[in-house]
Structure to design on (380 residues):
């Protein structure tokens, strides 16, 4: 198959001057995108496609935009597609940009003088195909090169009784977003979790280790990974763990507030992982985009390994030292998992190896002590 040159570009997708078929330019595509309603690809009637079409029709009129004919977008790409540099600043779309992680991602992008769109969940609802289709129409920017998806259902215990909602937000939504990003020629970073593993290992999990989530939340996040990669093979999935930041609910804030309220603290001491500060993860995510990383799965967590008990103790002691200007030895009773039953089962050991990311030249995160010092200074 020869590559057609000089064809008009629409959102990163190129159209033949005849026949209504699409192809990526410069030799990167190895398969023609089949046209919706054509002999080789009858209309599927897929609800996501129909939602996208309804949104496009409002901007371009009934069936005028060439993306209406796209049904199957199968692109196989060699490395050079992902190694092209582009002038900065560029446009970034941050989904979930007002949340705990997303707000720090937006701040990091602006710090590096990138142009950023961070629509609210009302403006861009990833569970609604019509809403997601706005990415193609240019509502959030006409030169978007990267979309960073920080939106997620994160109520681990509640997910056990709200499985439909967890699956919709964490699995279906990312698939819709990945599909539209593929159509628009936008690369996607999707944030996932250590909960895709069962925690039976005693050494750090790598990206190639077998997944085996223990609960609804983990299963929904794993399904999200799969739907993203199935819809958009150019995506980057970043798994992280024990995320905390000042712009939302987080474990250190809960422990500090309980301590200040004079409560007797009992914290699980036999679950082990790596606390990850949102500001450091935000820097890592932006580094990935600026390095034009290859597609695939990467682990990105804090470097220090500890238990929830150790994390709680360190967080409170840091707060007392930095904010109260007092040096205190905090007493917290260590307890086993069985002494604090929860609806969702959690992995006992969920340390993730960051070696693959380091091999790509991405700098490691700061120590948890340094991160907590900054964290407590940012609390309301």
């Amino acid at each position: 198959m020869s590559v057609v040159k000089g064809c008009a570009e629409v959102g990163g997708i190129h159209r033949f001057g005849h026949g209504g078929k699409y192809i990526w330019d410069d030799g990167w595509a190895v398969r023609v995108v089949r046209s919706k309603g054509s002999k080789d690809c009858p209309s599927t009637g897929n609800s996501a496609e129909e939602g996208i079409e309804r949104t496009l029709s409002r901007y371009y009129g009934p069936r005028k935009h060439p993306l209406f004919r796209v049904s199957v977008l199968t692109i196989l790409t060699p490395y050079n597609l992902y190694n092209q540099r582009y002038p900065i600043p560029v446009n970034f779309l941050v989904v979930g940009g007002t949340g705990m992680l997303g707000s720090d991602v937006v701040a990091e992008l602006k710090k590096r003088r990138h142009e950023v769109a961070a629509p609210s969940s009302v403006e861009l609802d990833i569970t609604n195909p019509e809403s997601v289709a706005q990415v193609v129409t240019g509502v959030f920017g006409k030169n978007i090169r990267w979309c960073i998806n920080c939106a997620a259902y994160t109520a681990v215990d509640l997910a056990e009784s709200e499985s439909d909602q967890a699956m919709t937000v964490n699995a279906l939504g990312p698939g819709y977003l990945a599909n539209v990003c593929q159509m628009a020629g936008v690369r996607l970073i999707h944030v996932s979790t250590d909960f895709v593993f069962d925690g039976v290992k005693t050494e750090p999990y790598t990206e190639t280790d077998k997944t085996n989530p223990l609960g609804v939340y983990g299963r929904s996040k794993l399904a999200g990974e799969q739907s993203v990669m199935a819809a958009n093979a150019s995506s980057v999935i970043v798994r992280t763990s024990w995320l905390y930041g000042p712009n939302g609910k987080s474990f250190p804030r809960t422990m500090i507030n309980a301590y200040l309220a004079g409560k007797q603290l009992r914290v699980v001491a036999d679950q082990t992982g790596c606390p990850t500060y949102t500001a450091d993860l935000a820097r890592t995510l932006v580094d990935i985009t600026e390095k034009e990383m290859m597609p695939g799965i990467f682990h990105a967590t804090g470097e220090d390994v500890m238990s929830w008990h150790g994390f709680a103790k360190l967080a409170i002691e840091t707060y007392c030292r930095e904010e109260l200007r007092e040096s205190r030895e905090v007493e917290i009773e260590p307890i086993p998992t069985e002494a604090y039953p929860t609806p969702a089962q959690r992995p006992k050991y969920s340390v993730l190896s960051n070696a693959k990311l380091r091999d790509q030249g991405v700098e490691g995160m700061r120590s948890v002590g340094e991160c907590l010092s900054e964290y407590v200074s940012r609390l309301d």
